[in-house]
Amino acid sequence: xxxxxxxxxxxxxxxxxxxxxxxxxxxxxxxxxxxxxxxxxxxxxxxxxxxxxxxxxxxxxxxxxxxxxxxxxxxxxxxxxxxxxxxxxxxxxxxxxxxxxxxxxxxxxxxxxxxxxxxxxxxxxxxxxxx
Length: 131
Known about the structure:
Blueprint: E1 12-21, E2 34-35, E3 38-39, E4 45-53, E5 56-70, E6 73-87, H1 99-116, H2 120-125
Antiparallel strand pairs: 1-6, 2-3, 4-5, 5-6
């Protein structure tokens, strides 16, 4: 931000959701990790993948056997962490960025990655209601 209080550069705009599952998320996901013909998703697993897509990048991290601290309670389960962002969005000629538009783009891509990573049967079992 410059002396006039105007933003003169932006390095990153994004949306991140960290989802907790009380069970092994690999059982309801479209992800499989195998060595030869043996599944490696039964124990503790940490998987990180980057999906570049034009000017958006989504970082997916799946952790099975993770621990989540909620107040004084410690919960064990799986974490599905999705972070979708735009790196160095360009400022327009008038030095402005349509933040809402860029956040909406990132949010739409994040939702697409989230839902494509889960089996349809699991999603349908949650009885989703779409607007």
